[in-house]
Amino acid sequence: MGLEKIKLMSLYTDFRKDVAYIEKELERSVQSSSPIVRQASLHLLKAGGKRIRPIFVILAAQFGNYSLEKAAKVAVSLELIHMASLVHDDVIDDSDMRRGLETVKAKWNNRVAMYAGDFIFSRALTSIGSIEKEAVHRILAETMLEICKGEIIQIDFQRQTDQGMRDYLQRIKRKTALLLASSCELGALSADADAETVRKLRRYGYFTGMAFQIVDDILDITSTDAELGKPAGSDLLNGHITLPILYIKDDAEFRPYMERAFAGNMLESDRQNMLRYIRQSDAIDKAQHVSDLYLEKALKELDGLPNGKSKKALIQIADFIGQRKY
Amino acid sequence: MGLEKIKLMSLYTDFRKDVAYIEKELERSVQSSSPIVRQASLHLLKAGGKRIRPIFVILAAQFGNYSLEKAAKVAVSLELIHMASLVHDDVIDDSDMRRGLETVKAKWNNRVAMYAGDFIFSRALTSIGSIEKEAVHRILAETMLEICKGEIIQIDFQRQTDQGMRDYLQRIKRKTALLLASSCELGALSADADAETVRKLRRYGYFTGMAFQIVDDILDITSTDAELGKPAGSDLLNGHITLPILYIKDDAEFRPYMERAFAGNMLESDRQNMLRYIRQSDAIDKAQHVSDLYLEKALKELDGLPNGKSKKALIQIADFIGQRKY
Q1: Which pLDDT score, from 0 to 100, does residue A12 have?
Q2: Which chain A residues have a beta carbon less than 8 Å from that of B134?
Q3: Does ipTM come in above 0.90?
Q4: pLDDT, tens digit, for every residue of A137-189?
C-alpha cells in the first residue's frame, strides 16, 4: 500500500470496516473463468489507487438511510468504471508504468488491455444493475458518456499548442471531476437523501474533483520519478497540456522544450532541464491557486449539511487534496 | 444498401415504418460534438448491417403492449452494443475492411476505434437508461458481460488447434446468440409480454443466433471476396477456428494450410487452394446440418405463440437464415 493511501485512510478511520468490505467486493467482482482476464483485472486492482470514489460513495450515503450493501454496489460500480478507463488510457498513452507497476498493456498487450477494460466496464454495470432507481442508471450512463467524450476530445487536443484554460477545465471535468461528482451524488441518492443534500454533495464532489486533477497535474511536474512511479513530466511527453503548462507555454525559453517533448525526441538531460525550468517559474503557484479556489467552493457546499463524522471526513479530504505532495 | 438487407427487409414490410424510425434514432444517438467521433460513428452506422437486433426487438415487442417509442430505445441500445463490439473486434483482428468498407481503425487509427467503441457503448446505456424496469438493466448488463468474456476467450483460443465443438459453440453463443436472445427477450419484456412468451422468444433468438453465426462462418469460406467485402477465409487467416474447420482440421492434407494461415505466411495461391480444399470436402455440409438443427429448434419455440404478422416474420427470418448465400 502506498504511503498516500495510508495517510488518506487515517482520515476516515470510522469507515475503515466499510472500505474493507468494498475492497473484498471489488476483488469478488473481477473474478473470471478466463485466466488472462482474472490476472489482468487483479493486477489492476492490486495496483491500488486511493479508492476515493468508494470513499465518497460511503460518506455521501451517510447523509441518507445508510445501507453498506447498497453503498457497496454503487461504490464497486464507480471504482470499476474508473479502473476500466485507466486501462484504456494506458493503451492510448502507450504507458508501460502506472503507480510504480507495469500496466496491463505492457505486461500483456493492447488487446488484453482493451478487452479487460470492456470486461471491467461490464462488471461495473452488473454491480449497479440491481439498484432499483431509474435516476441512478440515468446518471451513470450520462457520466460514462461524458467520460468517453472526454477521452476522445483528449485525442483531438493532443500535441495542440493552441488551447486555453477553458479547454483544460473541460477536459479535467470529464477526466476526473464528473466521476467524483457522480460518486457523491449516487451515494446520497441510493440512500434516499433529500434532493438538496444530493445536489450539495454532487457539487462538493465536482469541486474537489477539479482540485484533485489540478494537483495531480502539478505533481506530474514537481514530484520525483520514484514518487510518481513513472517519469516526471509524462503528461508533456504524451502531448497533454496541463494547467501549469498553460501558464508557461508561450514563454520563449520554454517553447522549444515543449516542441521537442511533443515531437518525441527529448534526451534525458533535456527532460531534467525542462522540469527544472517549469519548477522555477510561477506556473506551479498559479495552478495551485486555481486548485485552492475549487477547494474553497467545495467546502462551502458542506455548509448547511448536518455535522458528524461523515462531514468531518469530507472536510479533511478536501484539506488533504490541497496539501498532498505525491 | 446491400442486396441481403433488401431481401431481409422484404420479410417485414409490415414493420418498415418502425424500422425507419429506429434508423433515424440510431443516427441521432451517435451525434457528438467531437468531429472525429461523429464521423467515425456515422461511418460505422452507414456501413449498415442487417439490423437484425432492432428487428427482433420490434417483432418480439408485438407480443405485448407494443409502443414504438419504448421498443426503439431498446432496439437502439442493442444495435449500438453490437456496433461497439464490432469496432473493438476490428482492432483485435487488425481488420482493414468490413462489409466492403474501410474499418474505423483503418480509416482513422486504433485509438479512435477504441474510444469510438467506448463512446457508442455509453450511448447504448443512455438509450436504455430511461426504461423503468430493473430486469431490463440486469439482463443488458449480464449480456454485455458475457459478450466481453467471449471476446477475451476468443484471444485465449486464437491459433489454438487443440479445441472442440463445445469450445466453438460457447464462443458463438457469446459472440452472436446471446445478443439476439436478449434482443427478443428485452423487446418482449419492455412491452410487458407474459413470462412464458418472453422465455419462448428469448430461446427463439438464441437458436436463430447460433444458426446465424454458423452460416456466417460457412459463408466466410464459400463466398467470394467481392460478396464478403473482405478476403474469403479471413477467419482462418485471423487464427479463428470455425465449425467447418473443426470438421476438417485433423485432415492430414488440410493441416499444413491451417498452420501456414496461423503463422501468417500464406501466399494468395495458397489461400485459394485452401479454400478450394475445404469447399470440396464434406465440412460445409456437416456445418450446415448443425445450423439446420438450431433453426428447427427456433421454429419449435414459436409454436403456441399467437399467429399474426409478427410470428410470420419471425418464421421467415429463420428460413432466410437457413438459405442466405451472402
Answers
A1: 73
A2: 129-130, 132
A3: no
A4: 889 888 988 888 887 777 778 888 889 999 999 999 999 999 999 999 999 99
- Name the stretches of chain A with pLDDT < 50: 1
Give the DSSP H or E segment for A102.
strand A101-102
**Residue among A184, A288, A321, A160 at smallest CA distance from A236:** A160
Helix (H, G, I), strand (E, B) or coil at B97: strand
Give residue limits of the domains in chain B: 3-323
Q: Does B111 touch chain A (CB under 8 A)?
A: yes
Q: How many degrees, rounded to 5, is the angle at CA B266 between CA B261 and CA B269?
A: 125
Closest chain B residue by Cα to residue A118 = B148
Contact B231, B239 (CB under 8 A): no
Give dist(CA B257, CA B261) in Å, integer: 6
Which of residues 75 through 104 in chain B touch A, CB cutoff 8 A? Answer: 88, 91-92
- Quick check: A36 and B156 CB within 8 A? yes
Nearest to A115 among B116, B140, B151 (CB): B151
Q: Do A152 and B88 touch (CB under 8 A)?
A: no
Give CB contacts under 8 A, 24+ apart, made by A161-166.
Answer: A161/A241, A161/A249, A161/A258, A161/A262, A163/A241, A163/A246, A164/A246, A165/A243, A165/A246
List the one residue out of B62, B184, B74 whose CA is nearest residue B131. Answer: B74
- Do the chains contact at A115 and B88, CB–CB below 8 Å? yes
CA–CA dist A40, A125 (Å, integer): 19
Whole-angstrom Cα distance, residue B20 to residue B134?
28
Task: Tell if the CB–CB gap between A140 and B125 is shorter than 8 Å.
Answer: yes
Using a CB-CB cut-off of 8 Å, the residues of chain A touching B155 are: 36, 111-112, 115
Residue type, A285: D
Q: How high is the pLDDT of residue A92?
A: 64
Residue in chain A closest to B144 (alpha carbons) equals A122
Q: Domain B3-323 carries which CATH code?
A: 1.10.600.10
pLDDT 10s digits, A117-127: 888 888 888 88
| Contact between A141 and B132 using a beta-carbon 8 Å cutoff | no
For A:142-201, CB contacts with B below 8 A are 142, 144-145, 147-149, 151-153, 155-156
Write down the mean pLDDT value for chain A: 89
A243 secondary structure, DSSP code: H
Return the minimum-mean-pLDDT range out of A78-87, B81-90, B302-311. Answer: B81-90
Residue pointed to by grid coordinates 431509474: A134
Residues B109 and B55 sit within 8 Å (Cβ to Cβ): no
The 10s digit of each residue's pLDDT in B106-137 is 777 777 788 888 888 888 888 887 788 888 88
Annotate A206-239 with three-state secondary structure.
HHHHHHHHHHHHHHHHHCCHHHHCCCCCHHHHCC
Q: Which long-range contacts (CB under 8 A, 24 or more apart) does B193-201 make?
A: B193/B60, B193/B61, B193/B63, B193/B64, B194/B64, B197/B63, B197/B64, B197/B305, B200/B301, B200/B302, B200/B304, B200/B305, B201/B60, B201/B63, B201/B301, B201/B305
Reported as a single tens digit per residue, the pLDDT across B135-170 is: 888 898 889 888 888 877 777 788 888 899 999 999
- Output the pLDDT for position A5: 61
Q: List the grid coordinates of A174.
A: 470529464
Q: Does residue B140 sit at the A interface (CB-CB below 8 Å)?
A: yes
Q: How many residues does chain A have?
A: 326
Q: Which has more pLDDT, B315 or B14?
A: B315
**pLDDT at residue B2 is higher than 60:** no
Task: Looking at the complex, report in whole angstroms how far the Cα of residue A157 sits from the nearest Cα belonging to chain B.
Answer: 11
